[in-house]
Amino acid sequence: MRSSPLSSREKVIVVLASVHLTFLLFGMLPASWRDWIHVSPVFKSYERLTRCHQLWNMFETIPNMNRLEARLVVKEEGRKAKEEGVILPGLRRFTQHDYVRLNNWMVNVIFHPTRGVFREAYMRSAATALLRTGRYTSKAELTLEVIPAYTRSLKGVNTLKEIAVERPSVLGPFPLGTLVSNHPPAPSAP
Amino acid sequence: MKSSTQNLLSRFTGLFLDPADARLYASVRIAFAFVSLLNLLQIWPDREIYFTDVGMIDQEVVRKYTIGAYLSVFDLCHSISAVSTYMLFSGAGMLLLLLGVWPRLAAGVVYVWYVSYSMRAPLVLVGWDEVLRCTAFLVLISPLPVCWSLRSRKARRRSAPELQVPRYGLTLMQVQLAGIYLHAVLARLDNEYWMGGDFMSFFLLSHNARWPGLWVLNYGLLLKGVTYLVLLVELAIPFLLIVRRWRWYGFAAGFLLHAGISLMAYNLVLFFLSMMMLYLSFLQPEDMDRLERGLKLPRAR
């Protein structure tokens, strides 16, 4: 145990480390519990300052998605619809296991009710990329098809001997020209 | 009364100022830099998708919807060449941190990298990104003694290596690890799948699982038991690690838990390594002696 008084440097260490320790201890509480306590705004400000977000849900939500497919479908008038990959750039195909981070993007953007603005931005970028390929005209219609398959109840899986049921979600169709004109490219220098 | 208050205060300051073996900080520093490099390598092939103007995430929209200030080096990097250059620069910072060369500067570069990419592409973040970013902050503010490092001969002559440094960084890392587990368990208390014991069956039927299939239904009761065991183990690990003579049980429980998750799930090896990195803060000087003897390393300098 210490018997000598603390130096100024030691005092600074104790104060700053105590602040972070308190933050970590408070961060042990789930987010919904923290909101009951009135120091929560201070906690959030410190969290934002240090960028040490304390949200450790680790599978708190049930992983009830069995698989996920996504594709862009482009339809020119009088022609058969064509499928393109959703990954930009390059319009590559999305596979869940190759793109663990993009799987999160799908869940965070496509299925999140408040992230419409990200979906719109994506559709504009996809339309620009499709027009750049030269394979489509601005009148072609673009649809984003996302096909998640949700795991049935365990009883359902047992009875039907089928793990999941598909619930497709569709965004569009939108004319490519309209999507791109909503986001005009920066004017070029005269 | 006064002496008991003093005693309590002294114990509290001891949490931060008691001397700690410099090799413990060195081991965390090396492990953190190594895992950070692996994470960077994992992101590298998809950098154009996440960070450039032609990718999946519009920087202007992210900036608009960021709560608080948008502070990211990617604000200056829009093309693939600029993004690649910044990633290489960050990788160099990780390498310097691994080697213990200009460690404070390197830790700063690595922390800025974590903040920058989490702000630029918040929609593609995964669990270990959060663990690594929190650890980056703790490494940045912790003592970074020069042991187990490639210091120049000149620098070695200039200052004697510190063998003992204040333990505040290790204390905060230990609490961070405990916080991750306790938060996770508490957050699940009102989740019917966890409380009903069905979590593991659903997990093994989900896209996260390595071998999803109807076979899962044959082990319903066992998987119910495993669900409750996971909760119990996560609750127990911080306490096992804190008690010095039980810490190896804590290490074993944590290793088996995360190795099990990595085995049964896709793409979670980096999560396993990120969590194990924080366990190093619970090692003791005698463990370091054993490690040095085992690896036939010269005494720490």
What is the CA–CA distance across the termini of chain A?
Answer: 75 Å
State the assembly state of the protein chains: heterodimer
Could you say which overall geometry of chain A the principal axes of the C-alpha atoms support? elongated
The fraction of residues in strands of chain A falls at 15-25%
pLDDT averaged over residues of chain B = 92
Taking all Cα atoms into account, the compactness measure Rg of chain B is 22 Å
Largest sheet of chain B: 2 strands, antiparallel
How far apart, in Å, are the first and last alpha carbons of chain B? 44 Å
Total helical segments of chain A: 7
Give the beta-strand count of chain A: 5
Describe this structure in words.
With 190 residues, chain A is an alpha+beta fold. Chain A contains seven helices and five strands. In chain A, strands 1, 2, 3, 4 and 5 form a five-stranded antiparallel sheet that branches. Chain B is mostly helical and 301 residues long. Chain B is globular. Classes of the chains: A alpha+beta (190), B mainly alpha (301). Chains A and B meet through helix 1, strand 1, helix 4, helix 5 and helix 6 of A and helix 1, helix 3, helix 4, helix 6 and helix 7 of B.
Give a quick precis of the structure.
Chain A is α+β, with helices and mostly antiparallel strands. In chain A, 41% of the residues lie in helices and 18% in strands.
What topology does this entry show?
The complex is a heterodimer of chains A (190) and B (301).
Chain A: H1 8-27, H2 31-34, H3 40-50, E1 65-75, E2 82-84, H4 100-110, H5 116-133, E3 141-151, H6 154-160, E4 164-166, E5 169-175, H7 176-181
Antiparallel strand pairs in A: 1-2, 1-3, 3-4, 3-5
Chain B: H1 2-17, E1 19-21, H2 22-43, H3 47-51, H4 59-65, H5 80-99, H6 103-120, H7 127-141, H8 153-158, E2 164-166, H9 168-187, H10 192-195, H11 199-205, H12 220-242, H13 247-264, H14 269-279, H15 285-294
